[in-house]
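Question (not urgent): is this output format expected?
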Amino acid sequence: MSGGSSIVVPMVLWGKYAPTHCISAILSTPDMKNIITGCNDGQICIWDLTDNGQLYPRSMLFGHTTSISCLALGSNQTTQPYIVSASENGEMCLWDISDGRCIEHTKMSQVHTDMVSYHFSNTKDYRLVCNGYYPEVLIINPLSFEVMICLSSKVVPDWISACCVLRPATKDDDVVLAISNSGTVKVWTLPSSEIKAKIVFEDESKQIRCLNAQTLTCCSANQRTVLIVCSKYWQIYDASDFTLLCSESNRVGERWCGGDFISVDRVIVWSNEGKGYLYKLPTNISDNKSISQIADPRSSEYRHHQPTSPHAYYILDIYSEQQLVCTPAMVFSKSMNGRKGLLRGDSDGRVVIWMLPEVSEKQMTLVRQESFDRLPALPPKTSTTLQDIWDSLYKYPPGVLEGLCAEDEHHLRITSTIYIPSQGKMVCGRQNGSIIILPATQSIIFQLLENNQISKDSISQQMLDGHDGRVTCLLYPFNESTRYEPQHLLSGGADFSVILWDIFSGYKIHTFTVHGGELTQMIVPPANCNVRILSSICSVASDHSVALLSLKERKCILLAGRHLFPVHTIRWRPLDDFMVVSCNDGTIYVWQMETGHLDRVVQGITAEEILNNCDENAAPMENLTNPSLTLTQALKRRNFATFRNLAQQKLQSHQNQQQLSQGPKADYVKPTGFPMLIQGVRTNTRDPDAHVVFFDTESLIGLIAKAKEKADTIGQKIQDKVQTSGLTVGGRDTSTASRGSIISTASTTDATRPDSIRLQTNITMEIAQIFMSCLHAWGLDPDLDKLCLNKLGLLKPQSPISFGLLSRQGHMSLMLPGWHKRVCHSELADLKGVTVSKIRQGDVKSVSFAEPPQPPGGSVSGKPTLLAQRMGSMPFDDEELYSSDDGANNDDAFDDSLPVPEKHINATALQQETGIFSTKARWQISSAVTTQHLLSVISVANTMMSMSCASFLMKSRRKKKKQGVVTGHAGIIVTDVPDGDNTDDMLTMQQAQIKQGWSLLAALHCVLLPELVGASHYKPPLLEMLARRWQDRCLEIREAGQALLLAELRRIGLEGRKAIVDEWSPFLPMYVDPNLSLLSDAQKGEEEDDDEDDESMMAGDLPAHKVSVSFESRRKQATAIVMLGVVGAEFGHEIEPSRRKHEEPKKGGRKAPEGFSLTNYSLARHTSKALTFLLLTPPSSRLPAHTPIRRAAIDLIGRGFTVWEPYLDVSSVLLGLLELCIDSDQIVPSVTYGLPLSPVADACRTARHALSLIATARPAAFIITMAKEVARYNAQAQNAQSQHTHLQNLVLVRARQEIQHILELMVEKMPNDIADIFVETVDVVVHCLDMGQLKSKGLQELFPAICRFSMVSACNQTKRIWVGAKNGNLALYEMKQHSKCQLISAHQGPVIAVCVNPDGKYLCTFSHVDSRLKFWQTASSSIFGIGSQQTKCIRQYSVPKIEVTPLTNILKLVRLVWIDNKTVVLLTVDGSETKFSI
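Got this back:
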């Protein structure tokens, strides 16, 4: 399954040390707003550059496993800020730099050393022109990494060392110019027309004296000169015939590294010392005379020419004392507005930018006269490192242990981390060999949020001392599989030992000393190994040895120690009892686990085959996942499983059940679906761990809902005033002797906290508290903020939070601290009317800091606050709502008028910065981040709202003795209920306030956020991400996604919706190549590439492996169908006035989008076809049954039925929906408690909802279609008795219960519509009811809803049903299987009352149109008589006319009542009674 169908929100605790960033490649965007640096450890850093030269780090991207070799732009469209990175092992990634998403990635066999982005004349967007360790030049499409053209050599093929592309002014063709390592210049011409050939050979080549060129650049201004830079010299050549024009040697002790043209006669060249030199070319070069021509003494030029050698006129240097560890990465950048800069990235992560000045000829002449050594030097405009940014913050970014350890231990770095989700504990190994265990949620609250409850002393820590030197890796095997003991923890250290600990007691159980080097990794063998291996773990050390250590026998089973190179990966062949160790040099060692023999050593292709074969047999590949791995280690070992698990956290209850039913392996199911995971991250092995906290929204909602389930049972008991004696929480019994019962007895003081596992509910609630506190938009609505603090128990962040974003296959982007400074400075400048260039600690005093500023939409400006907007007035008295419970004010605001001490200035500044971050900065990170955060906040808030009393407040509430109300940490309020109603009122009040709070919180984020934040600061959610969540597995996320998408579509208005329709309509399956169409039948040859789980089609991300074009195309189609379906259904043509009168003011003046109106309906037709196809097509490999896209189609058919109806085959759609609803009561549980429904149940639930929408929107269409189907069915049934079994399997028969359910709903909701087509309705009702029961129990008992109408009457004596029709007929139904309805003409107008007398012999009918009351004889006179002949009118009376106005409800006009067998009374609506007798 693709990573991304679950929403995972990462937050990162960087700690006080910035990550190492040894820059190996650097790039600037065309507008010079962003700088991108790639480093030797494989990370990429994105920096924002302001106009005044300030540099702010934005985010760090993780995903490459080796050093970044080159970077290039990925698109020239402003809507796609893409860059491409390539690393030294052939990996290529396409990133969106606005949010750090990895859009596409691949691994090529070729390794690129250089990539140039170029817009060819025959392409829509950039192509990458790549060269490297291979003899061709590849032209690659950066959006798909497909090689479009391969430029090969016929003459002297060799690796290409540099190349460039130019378009001659005279022609439309593009020319690729390249130089090989051996000095051969080659030229390829690519015509502007479409090139069919994949391989193109060079047009000409020429050998020149220029080996191993660093760069080759053509002057874009005149296209006549070419600059080639080699390490010893740089040269200018004539572009037409490659004659040498001039040359310059390197400086002493420096080597040239690259160069570029600044203008026609000036170049910039840089050296390995990180210095840039500006040169003026000799004037004759611009006239393009070759050196040989000028050097001829006979030529006239020789006598009066300018100097032939270029001369330097400027040097760019930073003059630092620090020695460079390696050559800096440098690049010359020309921005679109004409600014020119030289960028340099150093080994210590320093980014240096020089802006080149304009130097006039006059100034140059002065330089020329000066001594050559004293070149004028240009200082850099900007020079900064990540650590500088860290140091400039008011407070260092929080780390996991900051402020928690003893004073003398603050300098100790964390060297390894592991998180134990089952106990909510985090284990950190440090550089002095100590291991510290502490509750994860409490320490995160302590670091990130402002709170008075948790202090350093209240967090219980456990220390394990045993290692001598660094703790290099940790493993908690129970995380991986339940076959291990929950108390066992393993640690490996730099002292070559592995120690087995009991974490409950802190006791050291055993020390394994078998390795001869420091431990690098510990992993768990797969679950299908033999029994002896199952109780052991596998450890890898830096002496290239691998050991299997048995935890049961406390000894080493196998020591594999003959590997010559570092161990790269470990694979398993459990069935053959083999452990396969792959080394860095590509060699594979196959070890027999049981005996410890080395079976064989293999290299080359065989080795690769063996490795790949291991994957097939060892299904539990997942077990290479080890939370203690550092990010880089995991990446270096291709251990993507680690990240896949983080990205995919799915509640695998469904799969687990299947495994349970399959056999004895069930207890080895790996636990997943944790709401929070903590991963240690480091960019370099020498760095301390930073910590990424991953929150999984879906799992969190599931666990909160479980807590709710328990809370509901308690709440019920309280209401019933039943005394509870015990309660199961998190799977463990906690009996409480008190009369009340408090969920989660774990309190925050050391005295009462049990050492054993803390209760799961408690941890879940703490996780939810951190999650919601970090994600809530603080500062936008002060009243709501008070409510959140005082009633809901949310906590304000202490400082700006670094969020992250997970994208495909473990690629991840993490925000860097300090980025928010950019927004804060501009905001403060606007606020104070001063420009704050860079606030350092010294000059903070010049700016007066107060409370976080009021946003434009805040309540100070006189706008009603959110509470008042929603409620019309304050719902509760203000004091009660906003006061905190202990009476103290929670705000730590500093008063401007008071003199503020020095250290408080920083605190206030930090508080203000945090305020600006949460009101402005975090909403402009990127659309993807906004989408994730809003979906998460709204879905969790709705879950909390559905709980009885979900507040996170940690203190006991108002323990007034007479009322005895107490709250557990889980926020469930319990009381021992004394006499009197006060307590109930207070509880109800409390509950109402808390529900109100969550509701307002959800409303703020769903609807009001864009207006409060302000359009300039708000990156709106991505509509396509929301469209893919339209039918998410998790109901809460689904509802949040739907609400957000609709709110956003309303916000963007008519124009915006039109743009959306224009953008997505080309992807509708009708308009796409049929081979790639979602709606075409699967092609025979294509099925194998279509085995991606269909869920990924609607998930947030693409599947992990290389995406096939067909899959990407189908995914776009799926999104287009949903997007256009939503636009059509919600904003389609006018909703007819009679149907939804109450919605008129909202939707009346609306214009339908193009393509969905009554006049222009092409899109409506195509969309409805696509939706019906998705509903009705039988399951196939390409489109399995019950997938999210099918559910979305079902949902949208229901929502927009009025729009689609003209283009649908209504009966097949209704039957298709009914088929999904068969046995719905068994499939859909009555209460789900937030757990994902099974796909079948989910489809069933959605179909039921769609049917009810269709039935209420178009009752006539529903009833008449069903009546036709019933008539068709009855005709078949009468004609073909033999095919009885076939008839019983028809949808119409199997879905009787569901049809009856819908009819009941319609009778209740729209009786007048039913009355218009009453005979057809009864047709369907009679079909749905069981004849046997109908005869024995009667219609009144089986279908009481229909008997409310006065125009139906059933006789239990004669087993008949009589119905009055609108056209004046009388319809008669015999209670027999498949009997036909008989019609008798009775009145001139609608028959509005029918009644059979008690003995069934006479029938009375009435119509208000002809004002007649008629008596009919019903009993048959002869034994074999047929009823219709015998039913005859025996008497009729004229009745005074009853006045009817258009507003009269005909259904309530009259009623007929028999008072005995011969007399009937006519009751009219005005209260008059008239008696009639036969």
